[in-house]
Design brief:
Blueprint lengths: L5 E4 L15 H13 L4 E5 L5 H13 L4 E7 L2 H11 L5 E8 L2 H8 L3 H18 L3 E6 L6 H13 L4 E6 L6 H14 L7 E6 L6 H10 L5 E4 L13 H10 L1 H4 L10 H12 L20 H9 L19 E3 L5 H10 L7 H17 L3 E2 H16 L3 E9 L7 E8 L2 E8 L3 H13 L4 E9 L8 E9 L2 E9 L2 H18 L9
This protein binds 3-methyl-2-oxobutanoic acid (KIV) and zinc ion.
């Protein structure tokens, strides 16, 4: 049997814990479908006990996904575990992932429990979960900073109780590759029944080493599952990045010698979808999925690549979903060509009516912009789904006037709870005036903590993609909007963020 590395995607659970990244049920479902298309082995869909919204999201994903295993997180108590089992009932393949902290610091200061109490709770939790599902993962939270003797005792017991996967988190991103790899190796050597479980790595990126640590856990430690997120999304500096792990193991098969189930050609579409849904922009020099990942600026490199691609490229751009010919469609392209390109990009539309709406928007865009790139199509489709999900405020039109020496003025028309509203304001600049015009009517009182503009494709002719992060009453949300006019994109992003502020349910943080 081939030696396989299991890819466990936690974008929808650990990734969602990033400030402002929390997603609606429909957004999570759309991403889960895309992860299934990417053929990840396990989708950690959420933390069902944290909120009714997350319960429903996990339930919807469990009912919809047929190939990947759907996993729900739970703390090590009967209530959380029952809630996870309930949400996962409809899944073709389900897993409960239960965790409790085992480091001295977490046990004493956070849980206020003795090691013996934690030991007992871990044992009972796994026993309880195994009575509900056959596939149970156990994580000793802050495992890497735990006492090895204690950890071995806990892990041996939970394996005896039936845990099928043992995940060793570096919860705070403190590990160093060689040390983490050896840590996993030691645990596997010292836990007498270690061969009865799959060993898994879960690394945070606080020191920028999440991918390196995970790979060391695989190579040195013998782990056969990596927990990771699309674009490395996650709290603080994020989690281990799925695209980097997959492409490292695939590109260096000579070294790792491992098989993967993932279809890497869907990586880019998934990355764009996650970025546009969460408002977390991908830096241009990000490995694998950044805009520059396959761009060569220096003459020597360009010349080399033209003569023989492998002089400077170790991966084929098309293997991760970048198309060779990036200008794909224009004004004269028909519905069939549009539909086919959506399929090639791995975007599944739920109905013909959805395709028609997206196609109408594509035509509108093509009237204003001569070349439509893959990125434009992905942004447009994502905008379309945003509009469908959040109906409270919808952009209609914007007029603004700015002139050197004059204070800019903006008039915006949008719908608020189904009614058309017209609102005006001045501001320091045209964007400021437009957003103030919205705020004059909405009066959200939210504080803007981030405003960022990105060109979706390379030139001034391209669409601007704006991310706005708002904070209100302890909630943080990211809104995104795209349009060839960056002031319109800003207004759309602001309305999108307001919609999210109104619709998001509170959540319990998994590590809180
Ligand atoms: O980082 C961590 O410890 C976690 C656990 C809940 C697995 O995400
Ligand atoms: Zn984590």
């Amino acid at each position: 049997m081939a030696d396989k590395l299991i890819i466990f995607d936690t974008t929808l659970r650990d990734g969602e814990q990033s400030p402002g990244a929390s997603m609606t049920r429909d957004e999570k479902l759309r991403i889960a479908r895309q992860l299934d298309r990417l053929k990840v082995d396990v989708i950690e869909a959420g933390f069902p006990a944290s909120s009714n919204g997350d319960f429903e999201a996990v339930q919807a994903i469990a009912n919809a996904i047929k190939d990947s295993t759907v996993c729900g997180l739970s703390r090590a108590n009967d209530r959380d575990i029952s809630r996870a089992a309930e949400a996962l009932k409809g899944a073709a393949r389900s897993r409960i992932h239960t965790f409790i902290a085992t480091s001295p610091l977490h046990m004493e200061k956070k849980l206020r429990m003795t090691p013996d109490q934690v030991f007992e709770q871990a044992k009972l939790a796994v026993r309880f979960a195994r009575n509900l599902v056959a596939d149970v993962e156990f994580s000793p939270e802050d495992g890497y900073r735990s006492d090895v003797d204690f950890l071995c005792r806990v892990l041996e017991t939970v394996i005896t109780e039936g845990a099928t996967t043992i995940n060793v988190p570096d919860t705070v991103g403190y590990a160093i590759p060689e040390l983490y790899g050896n840590f996993i190796k030691t645990l596997r050597e010292r836990v007498p029944n270690s061969d009865k479980a799959v060993w898994s790595v879960h690394c945070h990126n606080d020191l920028g080493m999440a991918v390196a640590n995970s790979l060391a856990g695989v190579k040195i430690g013998g782990a056969r599952q990596v927990e990771c997120t699309i674009n490395g999304l996650g709290e603080r500096a994020g989690n281990c990045s799925l695209e980097e792990i997959v492409m490292a193991v695939k590109t260096r098969k000579d070294y790792f010698g491992l098989e993967l189930g993932v279809d890497s050609r869907h990586i880019l579409a998934t990355s764009r979808m996650v970025s546009q849904t969460t408002g977390f922009v991908i830096q241009p020099n990000k490995a694998v999925v950044g805009a520059n990942a396959f761009a060569h600026a220096s003459g020597i490199h360009q010349d080399g690549v033209l003569k023989a691609r492998d002089t400077y490229e170790i991966m084929r751009a098309e293997d991760v979903g970048w198309s060779n010919n990036k200008i794909v469609l224009g004004k004269l392209s028909g519905r069939n060509a549009f539909k086919q390109r959506l399929q090639e990009l791995g975007v599944a539309m739920e109905s013909e009516a959805d395709i028609n709406t997206a196609f109408a928007r594509f035509k509108e865009l093509a009237d204003r912009k001569s070349d439509i790139f893959d990125e434009d199509i992905l942004a447009l489709v994502s905008d379309e789904s945003i509009a469908r999900d959040n109906e409270q405020y919808t952009f209609i039109s914007l007029a603004q006037r700015s002139e050197t020496g004059e204070r800019p003025q903006a008039t915006i028309v949008f719908t608020a709870q189904g009614k058309e509203v017209k609102s005006e304001s001045d501001g320091n600049g045209p964007v400021d005036a437009s957003l103030k015009a919205i705020e004059t009517h909405v009066k959200s009182g939210a504080e803007m903590v981030l405003y960022s503009v990105n060109a979706i494709s390379g030139s001034t002719e391209s669409q601007g993609e704006v991310t706005i992060r708002l904070q209100n009453n302890g909630r943080v949300v990211n809104g995104v909007g795209s349009d060839p006019d960056i002031i319109v994109a800003s207004a759309k992003a602001y309305l999108n963020a307001l919609n999210k502020l109104r619709s998001k349910a509170d959540r319990v943080a998994a590590q809180g």
